[in-house]
Amino acid sequence: MKNKLILITCLLIAETGVMAQSAYQWKQATSGGYTYKYVTNDPTKSRFYTLKNGLKVILSQNSKDPNIEFRMAVRAGSNTDPRNATGLAHYLEHLLFKGTDKFGTMDFGKEQPLLNKIDALYETYNKTTDSAKRKEIYAEIDKTSGLASNYSIANEYDKMMKAIGGQSTNAHTWYEETVYNEDFPSNATDKFLALQAERFRNPIFRIFHTELEAVYEEKNRGLDNDGWKLNEKMSELLFPTHNYGQQTTIGTIENLKNPSLVEIRKYYNKYYVSNNMAVVLSGDFNADEMIKKVDQSFAFMQPKPIDLYNPAPEKPLTTIQKVDVYGPSAEGVEMNYRGYAQSTKQSLMLDLISSILSNGKAGLLDINLNKQQKVLRANAGYQQMKDYGVFSLTAQPKQGQTLEEAQKLLLDQIQLLKNGKFDESLIKATVANTKLNLLQAFDNNGYRVEAATSEFILNRGVNWNKSLSTPDDMAKITKQQVVTFANAFFKDNYVVGYKHKGVDKDKLKVDKPLITPINANAGATSDFTKNLLATASKEIAPKFLDYQKDLNFGKVGIADVIAVQNKENSIFRLSYRFDIGAWNYKLEPYAAQYLTFLATDKYTAEEISKQFYNIACSYSFNVSNETATINVSGLQENFVKAVSLVENIFANCKANEQALSELKSRILKSRENTKLNKSAILTGLMSYAQFGAVNPTNFVLTNDEVKAITSEELLYILHNINNYKHTITYYGPQTLPVFTVGLSKIHKLPTEFTPAAPAKVFTYTHNTANQVYFADYDMVQSEIRWVRNGGLYDPATSPKITLFNSYFGGGMGSIVFQTIRESKALAYSTFALYSAPDKLGKETAMIAYVGSQADKMNDAVNGMNELLTDLPQTDKSFEASKYNALNAISTDRITKDGIIQSYLADKKLGYDHDSRIDQFNGLKTLTFADIKAFHTNNVSGRPYNYCIVASEKKVSLADMQKFGTVNKLTLAQIFGY
Q1: Strand 829-835's sheet: what is its strand order?
Q2: Helix, strand, or coil here: 901?
Q3: Full-prediction pTM beyond 0.90?
Q4: Residue 764 carries which DSSP code?
Q5: Which of 289, 534, 649, 947 has its CA 20 to 30 A from that of 227?
Q6: Domain 316-424+478-509 in CATH: superfamily?
Q7: pLDDT tens digits, residue range 94-115?
Q8: Which pLDDT band, with edges at 50, 70 and 90, does 512 fall under?
């Protein structure tokens, strides 16, 4: 459950007076006995209902696959936390997964007195200041919680969602919102609504002290995140009175240490009421039937007067304020300006300006800073909240550049904007690109519900018409209006944040309390759950692909073509897929980077970027370890322009020695920054553990080799790329014959392909004893991964691997999550999986992970090792996992160019047919004994490599030696430079 850091900015709202009569008008209709509102020409065809109790319901019917996306949105978040109880909304979000008096418990009558006692103990604990007395009280809380856990059923909600086919249980809390999200198969609608109605009817705050510890872990993860710290400190200055800056979503350490279940209950009763909530659904349903079911399910909810957070306006900022943050990650600079409320013309303007400055292709920052390599990277964006927005400019300095110099370059671009030194066509191009992005995005149920949920949170849904008309409203803005606005807005009125590399002398952490593992009662089932799952759902029949019928195969010259016709709209996606990658040619990734900065015989590098943006098309050259891909996409009407431009780029790109020199410097600086990234370090440790001293992570050019790269070497790769074997894939409106004839005129091919250099082959390690691979990093937490190679992959084992992963370590209802987090409170994040490769000839691997406080590392390792050694048996969880795995295939609908991707993926694994057929049939016959045997034969009793990233000041060598032989690796050993 993570904070939602970014709202859907492309749907920013325009002020009522901004636009004239538009194509998007509110209308009212009645159907199925319910009145609703809708907006004309809405591509999502969303219906906006208000039920008698005030509950908002937003329905978007989209029956392309038999699944439904759900959001339960509450217009209350950290802004409405009491000042003396910050983090409360976030706590509550976690507790809404713990059940009610009907589920999550075996005997609520016996459990309730103990829960009441825990409530009272916390109230006493909060009022007590004597440390010794507090320890006594907490010991009593721990003891009573243990007794209460004899009656509770941990994760029963998650198990039910798994049993009905749910795939993505989650939630998030942010400033103005708490949102609960699910997706589920359409045949489980009645069960799903019954579960959600019960979930919000009378939530019981059980298993609290272990969940509280998970929030501590989440807080500590934030304290290890330099970007998070910078954002928090900058917000304090940007919003000196508003809760955007004065309260954080997770809360202060002091408030976290002194939670009040009484206050949390008050918060729930105050804000979780029908007239402050919305049910949002998009997917495979009949809207008339769905609204009736939602109404019946949530009719118990009652409205109450709502007093939401309504702050006094912030005073204008009149000075430049500076923030300095230190930490182990790479340095950077960020400038934040305070924006305006949603539903204002000013916010619409700032959204447009963010694209004029930074759109990934032709913005001022893109052209003047990124394309000219004046910084490592630069970006601009506008984040909209309800009361204000935040306009941000960010840059990472290049080698030898100070943060102040990088900041000045950002300010220079603002000055160009204020002086009108930009092409007015950027506005038209931004509108075209926004429309294209929305055309693609609204095809996705997840995007639909996210957009509608944000609309409800910001506006209670009343401005959906203006949200849809945003691109049209942007199109009416003139260059002069932008310039006038920019001169009024961008002054010495911002907060600048400098992220320095160094030691954070103020770093704190939330210390671990003494927690006795609770009884998870994994095998228990409440009567509510039994009744809910007793009724069989109507089965959804799987729809498998027939590659010979669903794909069109052809030729362009000597290249194979695989195509799927797009019969829905005018979008095309074209790819050239080469059988060569970085393992064939170490220089190839660098050639791809170099290409960005090169001119051709016809166009400068800047003109190329502008041309693609102006025709709302995109192209990329991506190089992975084993393959390379040239991708082109956009509207079919611009196909010839876009593809011809791409062909011209590769055939005629010219050397630019200055650009290459700058690129080398940036590569070396990026490498320095990578060494400061703890996630990259952990990935490198795993690679070292799996393949030894020469592995995929460090199989790169040395720094000296980078310095020696020549334009001639890189241009040879680019100019000759089409001479290597590749497959052409096309998804678009044209038929195969029309496409192949047209492309053959543009895409010139040799009479035979150039043989590729053999790819580097890495040797898998098979250690006979435990090994520890350790890297020192200044952090509060410890990151631990277990990895062990499991031998060559046999596709016949795929069903067992899928079911094992679902049962053992995948998701909140898994054995690993229940034990490590729910029962023992050892981590916020944990998982385990048996990893299957993407290609025949590669090995499988058993991988496990725990991210915990450093002082919990030993307990976390022991907890995971117990599960790797002995697989607990919980029959209900196993059956739910099996049903979930089968249902995921039954409801999976592979369409569009996904059919091509599926075909190519199956081909790499040796299938000539849809591999899901074998997967589905194999899953049906599996029993727990099969999974137990798989665990015994592949997981239990084996030597493991422990990959640990932590501060050596917080974890001891002696402790790590208990796990295995310790190998402390240097960053040079890990990365190869």
Answers
A1: 829-835, 843-853, 781-792, 945-950, 771-776, 965-968
A2: helix
A3: yes
A4: P
A5: 947
A6: Metalloenzyme, LuxS/M16 peptidase-like (3.30.830.10)
A7: 999 999 999 999 999 999 999 9
A8: low
